[in-house]
Amino acid sequence: MLSMKTTQNHTGVKISGDYFDLDELNQAIYKVIGKEGEYHGYEGSRLRILGVSSEIRHAAQGDRNVDFVFNGLHEHTKKQHGFIAPDKNIYFSVEVLWPELLYAAYALRDFVRLYGDKRGDLLADAYAPVIAKFQALVLECLQGHVPNEEYAAILEAFRKSPSVNDYAIQYVDLLNLKYIGMTRQQREKSLSAIAMKLTLQDSEYQAFRKQVISAATPGKQPIHEIGIQAKYPEQVEW
Hints:
Largest sheet: 4 strands, antiparallel
Structural class: alpha+beta
Strand content: 5-15%
Radius of gyration: 20 Å
Strand order of the largest sheet: 1-2-4-3
């Protein structure tokens, strides 16, 4: 079963599940976000989501964390059926920064809509519900770490916030780096504000986006191709 919990230092979220849980999520992401260039204006957000997906794929391959989780098989059950079997399953997990994961959940809202417009009726679709569960798990994990009033405002923002069409995805890097640089206590206090900043596209974001557009204009580049000068630390204290 796919699950999420915040890391010890509140730096991010630990996503865990067995191979099939993680593979199912990745297959749904690939299907919903479409092929490269399929949705004009969304390529930056698509690449951002693929970054999270890549971490999940590496986790499923055993390249990140490996955990042993009780599978519900008790000794009396083994004796009753006369077999020997392990009482733990192998689960794989990976940590993702809070701002990065929140943006992925937020941006997937648009991709599900685009996917639905292309496919039509999603009643018999196997992929959109997997994405909905992923988004719900992210928000449920967030709920445990923000006040109820702020959580209600975040949910409202997720529902009504602007599209991520032509989003300046470098802003996610800015928030990631700020968040990494905080103390544990600062992260706890700022998590609601970061969730709101990602979705509401406030004046700070708009000013940042104008800078990115200015950098992209001379070479007529798409704004998602503009790099950032700041570098991530080699090690993150999760």
